[in-house]
Amino acid sequence: MTSSVAVEPAPMRTTTRTRRVDTGGLCLDLVATRTPNSPDGPDGPDLLATTDGTAAWLGTLNLPTPAAGLTPRDVDRIQVLRAAVDRLVRARLAGAGPDPEDVGHLNVCAAAPTPTFFLRGDAWARIEVPQPDLAGVLSVLARDAVHLLTTGEPSRLRSCEGCGLAFYDRSPSGARRWCSMKRCGERSASANYRRRHTGTGDSDSDSDSDLAEA
Fold first, then answer.
1. Fewest CB atoms within 10 A around its CB: which of 2, 87, 88, 167?
2. 146 and 86: one domain?
3. CA distances from 31 to 47, 128, 166, 201 (A)
4. Contact, 180 vs 22, CB < 8 A?
5. DSSP secondary structure letter of residue 126
6. What is the pLDDT of residues 66-118, one digit of tens each?
7. What domain of life is recorded for the organism (predicted)?
8. Which uninterrupted H or E stretch holds 166?
9. Which of residues 154, 171, 198 is at a domain's end?
10. Are the CB atoms for 164 and 37 separated by under 8 Å?
11. Residue 156 CB coordination number (10 Å)
């Protein structure tokens, strides 16, 4: 991962984990741990509400937990970073300037060294250097946010038309409209289908277009 700050490569994401959405970025995955206006409820489930939930979420990204385990304070710290990243992303989407307080918090998090991993000499496996606290993980997430907000194509950073969740469109066509076809795209396609068959919707091409652009 290249960034405007000195960066060690972030740990690779697993390729088999189940994701509710495809955000296109680690920092956006962080924001997606709580989804406003979610089809799952008014505020959506919060994957970072507890130490166990936070540890499980970090595990799906191959990010380490502190050697002594997560504490409630760690949960608070990652939730504060999540809120700052969310506000900065929303400001970027709105074409507004960043809030200096959020920028300061992001930069403080990004300044910490990121976790270290080594390759074992006797097997194709990694050795994880124990982390004393959550600072290294917060640094990985914060540096990814710096990268996302300052590089790439700004027009590819979008809000899902279904739930409003932010995502970065990495599709070849650059025409994504949904955080996930299975989550919001299919709901929209189903709604269009029902409207057509009750005589209140648009043409059949609406649903086909939704499927193609998701």
1. 2
2. yes
3. 10, 26, 8, 33
4. yes
5. E
6. 999 999 999 999 999 999 999 999 999 999 999 999 999 999 999 999 999 99
7. Bacteria
8. strand 166-168
9. 154
10. yes
11. 14
